[in-house]
Write a structure and sequence with these properties.
Arc Repressor Mutant, subunit A; GIY-YIG endonuclease; alpha/beta; about 35% helix
Amino acid sequence: MQTEDLFEGIREDAYAQVAVPLPVARPFTYRIPEHAISLVMPGSRVLVNVSGRPLTGIVVATGNAPPRDLAPGKIQLLHDCLDPLPLMSPLLLALTRSVAAQTMSSWGETMRIALPSGLDRVARRRVALTPKGRKAASEEPLAKGSMQTASLSLLEVLLDAKGETRTIGTLMRRVGNSAICAQLYEMAQRGLVCIEDEWSSGVGGRWQDVAMPMRHITRSRALEHTERAPAQRRVIDVLWDNTQGIRVESLCETAGCGVATVKSLFVKGLIEIRREPLDDDEQSKWSANDDGAGRFCLTDSQQQALDRILNASEGFRSLLLHGVTGSGKTEVYLRAAKRTIESGRKALLLVPEIGLTPLLVHRAKAVLGDDVGVMHSGMSEGERLSNWWRARNGHIRTVIGPRSAVFAPLENVGLIIVDEEHDSAYKQDETPRYHSRDVALCRARLEGAALVMGSATPSIETFFAGVGGAHEVLSMPARVAN
């Protein structure tokens, strides 16, 4: 059953089916507040009340009418929408639903382990007024028309900030309301406020302030507003020569001014300041010359295996790469991933242990370039969250990691590799008790991708399935000569 089938006769979003991380048989139904209707959609993260306690859940369907077995008058109001955009793609919703069914777990419990920790730091996101918002906040009350009281209160608090940003947590305390996220995102849609795009500031990553000219402001107009401020005029000259943006630190150094000068231009509405992540990747940038990765002459068995992976018919297929230790399976993986990326799709490489990740990352960068992301529990929360966002936003084309990386938010995956597929580390020993190899098989079907399972000693079930024709078996019986 598709998620949309949970409702009938959909015309306008008014109700939401929400999966919560509890061992329950089905999602719960909630009414969507009017100001959040444009925000709440399948994949959105929301705050709801369950038996008197707040819980974070994921919306799996929306509709204009509740299920037939529920009376509209008995349905609670959804408390808040925590993000301006859905976190779970339709494919990941389908994948987690399938995993939940296979492992006899609830849908909400499965989605909980598919998302990284740190996303709950919503209160640390920062908000600032836009020029349009400052104008609206400065108007007389009667001129503000039908603007909601909550929006007016938030505008007034932000106006008092005098150009500084405020965290959502601070705004919650100032207005005495803990359910303001959807209100702020709706205000952002109307151009009244701006909210930092990375959404994860303060959880451990490193960030930088980047200044750039407002799109609708010309250099001459900006200079007209700063006739008696020579320092501000120097900033304008530097910025309008770097319209793509420049770090505030570098801008101050080049223009010979302080940060206060830059903030004054922001308050005047002449420039915008964004927070962008610094490159926090601890792995060094390797080239193919470091260890020969990507330049080896393949053996006959390696070439035959690579050709079978690449020449297989389009769409889903599963292959067992049965190669002895030292036969060069990793080189085949990376060559196949490179061809997949060159075709416009993305690659996912799973390894059983965190300890195997650094070496594979170095070699992957030698072959695939530097847009390789890593996801594992040994990283800091900020690093994991940063790489998760990079993958979700399409900034990296390859993800490498252990068991949980199978849920990486990559779009259009064309190749999934499960190295050492026999290893017991791929088995999750907590609810939901999934096996990454099985989840990878399910994801490959949904993506229409190739799944390559490699091992020198395949598991009994995988080898038996290969012999029975469920997987194509590729053999690499000899070690690569030194």
